[in-house]
Specification:
Layout (H helix, E strand, L loop, with lengths): L1 H14 L10 E6 L1 H4 L9 H9 L2 E6 L5 H15 L3 E5 L2 H5 L4 H17 L3 E5 L13 H9 L3 E3 L2 H6 L13 H17 L5
Parallel strand pairs: 1-2, 1-3, 3-4, 4-5
GO biological process, one term: lipid metabolic process
GO molecular function, one term: phosphatidylcholine lysophospholipase activity
Protein name: Arylesterase
């Protein structure tokens, strides 16, 4: 009985941790081509569509072709420049495609998460799927980090989009509609967490 009460208390405490974003807040969308919007028409990348959905400024800080090691180097300056309240972290696709160490990818993502949290921002971690020829399933490294740091987690968004041909511009990039689905799902997660009204 006491354990149940304690669990309810802890859960209630968690639910009140996040403050709703104001109209002056900034969301930083950080990643590679999936953030930059490769394959999208102008203004149809997911950060642009999320900004229209939320009414909150969303900075598109995606660079096509970037690997996580380079992203880690680039991140501190962006955090200092924009001072975001939320960072949507969607990185690792190029590490996977280039068959780089998955352990090193996990460590690079870990350091990014620590940097973001130390700067006072919430992290929405987006799991990148394995990008294999045999279907798209989230890499387990992302769930490990989401659990370890108690992050908002978009586990299946990319897997669902990239597993649906009509939502893709090529084998590994969404089209306008695919990026719209990403924006809607991220908006839903942020709303469910109490960050968006």
């Amino acid at each position: 009985m006491l354990l149940t009460i304690l669990m309810i208390f802890v859960k209630s405490g968690d639910d009140t941790d996040k403050q709703p974003l104001s109209k002056e807040s900034i969301i930083l969308a950080f990643g590679d081509s999936l953030t930059a919007g490769y394959g999208a028409s102008k203004g149809k990348d997911y950060p642009s569509q999320l900004q229209r959905l939320s009414g909150i400024k969303v900075i598109n800080a995606g660079i096509s072709g970037e690997v996580s090691a380079d992203g880690l180097k680039r991140l501190p300056e962006l955090l200092e420049q924009y001072k975001p309240q939320v960072v949507i972290l969607c990185h690792g696709g190029n590490d996977i495609l280039r068959k780089k160490s998955m352990h090193q990818l996990q460590e690079n993502l870990r350091q990014m998460i620590i940097l973001i949290q130390n700067n006072g921002a919430e992290v929405l971690l987006v799991a990148v799927p394995n990008l294999s020829l045999f279907g798209f399933s989230p890499l387990p490294q992302y769930e490990v980090l989401a659990d370890e740091y108690d992050l908002m987690f978009a586990e299946n968004v990319l897997s669902d989009v990239l597993g649906t041909n009509k939502l893709k511009s090529d084998r590994i990039h969404p089209n306008d509609q695919g990026y719209k689905v990403m924006a809607e799902r991220f908006h839903e997660i942020l709303s469910d967490e109490g960050l968006l009204n």
